[in-house]
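Please check this one:

***
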Amino acid sequence: EGAFPALTADVPEIACWFTTAPARKVRIRWYKISGEHDSGSWVRKLQARGRPPLAFIGGATSDRALRLARALRDAYPDPDGPSPVFLMTTATAERTAENTPLIEEYPRRSFRFSFTNQRMVEALLKFVQQTPNLWLAPGPPPPDLTMNAFAWGDERYSQDMTDLFAQEFQKRFPKGEFHTE
């Protein structure tokens, strides 16, 4: 009955349990991020409860994951102490604007559900290398390929992806040219 509350301001919730232990429930709640309650606000509110959460699931974008990871790190600074885990959903950036690995912003307690930019770059370039019908001439791609990439100055995801493409492209095609716009 809590999954679809009548009021949009209410917190949707579901509970999971084993039939052999119906009193022991794991509750999954969806706390909405808003102007009034950002991720840091929710972390502090939930930390103040008598029983803090086991996990935070979030990070639909790399920027949101970074904000949540930093809020968790501020609230739970000791990786060896009791603290919730952070399960990143679709954040793909490898590094922050400060060049820190995103997964290390909340160290030893962060896990990813999604592909990272590094894995996507590797998969795409492997596909390019193994798909001869992409080339005008039959056979493997020529060693002097040119790749162009675009990055937006105000969007960390595209910068991270472009940096990774540049590194991986040079490894695979050392005689190739890589250009960024």
About this structure: The two ends are 52 Å apart (CA to CA). DSSP finds four helices and seven strands in the chain.
